[in-house]
Amino acid sequence: MFAITPNTLSNFLNSISRYIIFLTIILLVVSGVLIILLENDYYQGISFKIMFIHVPAAWLSLLLFSIMGVSSIIGLVFKSPTSFTISRAMSPIGFIMSIIVLITGSIWGNLTWGTYWVWDARLTSMLILSFIYLGHILLLYSFDHFQKADFAASILAIIGLVNLPIVKFSVDWWTTLHQGSSILKIGGPSVTTDYFITLLISFFSLFLLCIYWFSNIFYIIIENRKIERSKLLE
Amino acid sequence: MIEIRNLSFARGNDLIFKNISLEVKHGEMMVLKGANGQGKTTLLSNILNFLDPLEGEIIYDGRVIDNAISSKYFLYIGENNFAYDELSLNDNIKYWLAVHNVNFSQEVRDKSIKFLFDELNLNKKFYQLSYGQKKKLQLLLLMLVNKPVWILDDPFNGLDNKTIEKIIILLTKKLENNGLILISSHQDVLTLEHKIFQL
Amino acid sequence: MIKNFLKLIKNEFLLMLRGSIFTIVLFSLLLIASSIFSLAIRNITYDIEITIAFLWIIIFFISLIKVEKVYANDFSEAKLQQYILSPFALEIIVFIKNIMIYLNLIFVFIIFSPLILIILGVQLSYLIPINLLLILSLLSIIFISSMTASITISKNNKLSITSVLTLPLFVPILIFSMALTEIVDFQISKLYLFFIAYFLLNLAFSPLLTSFALKRLSV
Predict the structure, then answer these.
(1) Has this prediction a pTM greater than 0.90?
(2) If we measure between CA atoms, which residue out of C161, A70, B185, B1 comes closest to residue B197?
């Protein structure tokens, strides 16, 4: 990972991005059909189906953040520009995902609990996560020199990474309105298999969409840098 | 020996300098000349590894410069004051010598102070000194910290002729002891033999 | 080296004493704020949680301001250059400075705390638990705010509001402190352990990241 230069990675991502978008569209269609075909939940009715956006987006926002944090650590330790660029390209996607989680979550919450927002630990933590994403993005654009911005933002990402376990397991520490995490529970999943498969497929389609965005953003960043550098040194 | 090969540096989207190459051997002194804004201080910061160059490399005695090398061999006196305003001169001297891990005897310290200042009340606070005296107090480090390379950013700015002569005596002694000196300056005050690099 | 290290600590302590006037000013602001607070809600009956939340948030901002002030002063460019060139690692200097800020804030708070509690109308039997809570949580707060301060004071920073952007990072401590107040009479519980664990976690990487940010961003 440290030996790969940003240029080779960007070329590689650019070359595979059309296959990714093809696969993404197929998976999105499949998961859409599956979601429509599924029976409504006995208690929650049709509002239950918002889960298939909410939960994958929540997983993804956490996953992207941990990738960002790890690549920031690698970037700081090995001074690798590739991993800095990875986290730079990732933060806007993660931010969008966390916003999706918050919006769908409050709609779902309004339909089932009758309130848009509760100061429950897990909701708070997701809000914090989106704030950290926002801070990361703003830090990236608050420095003249992109290398300095990368250093500052990666430090923020590492500090935020400490927050992640607290986000994930805070739901177990306090018993609140929010239902417990149902997939990653010890002793196997508690949802039925139909739901589980649909959830997984929608997760993967969203995941591939994120990878597609990521490769595009990565490519654009690298191309812009090339142009700037050639301007400087001419 | 400090060797710079094809060094370029950019701050943001400003190219400060490009393709600089120079060489200074032990026992030699080099003066960097140039108008304001030409990047003298930036070049020195690059040599000290405070800043990372855009391209090119800086080599000291066959090794590419990193933090360990710069902290072991280089002594730097910049343009701004580093002493603490709130502390007395005595405490300031003690503090910064401790930071540089120097064990000195009271006698040597008093002798150095006598050489530079003639007379100085050590119980004064740092902010009570005049501009030239503040500058001189920083230059005291040159006499007390023993490192092979001196990098001085405009050391003669604001000093009177008598003090400049004293500093030149120090520089001469350093060169005799096989030291390496890099100075940035925009005025001609040096009577010593030196190389000039025009930025 | 050890002799010089001790000298360094001694001089840092001296510096801390000189800087405590600023801390006292900050805590006088806390006194004023808490009298206005209790004046504003004098006709309402409320639980101790509200008072403690108020106290805790103000103290949190005080420590943020204090850390930023000390960092802006003690890690100005010229000083920082000398620290980087010294044989002592910058991490050690950052650690010593953080501990000194901590001691300073704690001592001044312990002196002020009976007065503040009387103004806020809290029973004096809560004096020791509140001090204990603060002593434990302030360690992590100082170490986290040192990281944010090192990013904020850097001269290349166009937005100087970064300290506000990094505020969400303190929320875990806030949540746990609030959780502690819900437990009647502040009995020693597992939550106290959280503060210690969180501090150890911060201790592991905070000086490292702070000095890294200072080196990379401020010179």
Answers:
(1) no
(2) B185
Left, alpha or beta for A45 (phi > 0: left; psi -120 to 50: alpha)? left
Q: Hey, of A145, A150, A151, A225, which one would you mutate to test binding to chain B, going by the most B CBs within 10 A of its CB?
A: A145
- Partner-chain residue, chosen from B12, B52, B54, that has the shortest CB–CB distance to A144: B12
Among A171, A206, A224, where does a domain finish? A171
Summarize the confidence of residues A18-43 as an average pLDDT.
83
Dihedrals phi, psi of B85, to nearest 5 degrees: -60, -35
CATH superfamily label, B2-198: P-loop containing nucleotide triphosphate hydrolases (3.40.50.300)
Q: For A144, name the nearest residue in chain B, comparing CA atoms only.
A: B12
At residue A176, the pLDDT reads 47
Give the DSSP H or E segment for A228.
helix A193-233
Q: What angle do helix axes A146-173 and C171-182 make, rounded to 10 degrees?
A: 20
A141 touches chain B (CB under 8 A): no
Residue numbers of the domain that contains C74 = 2-218
Residues A82 and A146 in one domain: yes
CB contact set of C200 (below 8 Å; sequence gap of 6+): none
Q: Please count the structural domains in chain A.
A: 2
Nearest Cβ partner for C156 among A125, A134, A144: A144
Domain residues for the domain of A67 are: 48-171
* Inter-chain residue contact A147 with B52, CB threshold 8 Å: yes
Domain check: are A57 and A165 in the same one? yes
Is the domain of A125 the same as that of A79? yes
Domain count within chain C: 1
Are the beta carbons of C144 and A159 separated by less than 8 Å? yes
- CB proximity B51 to A under 8 Å: no
Residue of C11, C18, C84 lying closest to B98 (CB–CB) = C11
DSSP 8-state code for residue B25: -
How far apart CA C39 and CA C42 sit, in angstroms, is 5
pLDDT at A186: 47
For chain B, the residue count is: 199
Q: Is C3 on the interface with A (CB under 8 A)?
A: no
Domain identity same for A71 and A143:
yes
Helix (H) or strand (E) holding A12: helix A6-37
Kindly report, residue by residue over B132-147, the tens digit of the pLDDT: 888 888 888 888 888 8
Instruction: Quote the CA–CA distance of C174 and C170 in Å, as a whole number.
Output: 6
Residue A63 lies in a domain: yes
- Window 90-119 of C: residues touching B by CB (8 A cutoff) are 93
User: How many A/C residue pairs have CB atoms within 8 Å?
Assistant: 73
Look at residue C105 in the predicted model and tell me its pLDDT.
93
In a domain, A13, yes or no: yes
Test mutation, B52, B64, B66, B67, chain A, max A CBs within 10 A: B52
Which residues is B184 bridged to in the sheet? B32, B153
In this structure, what DSSP letter does residue B17 have?
Answer: E
Q: What angle do CA C87, C93, C97 make, to 5 degrees?
A: 165
In a shared domain, residues A113 and A54:
yes
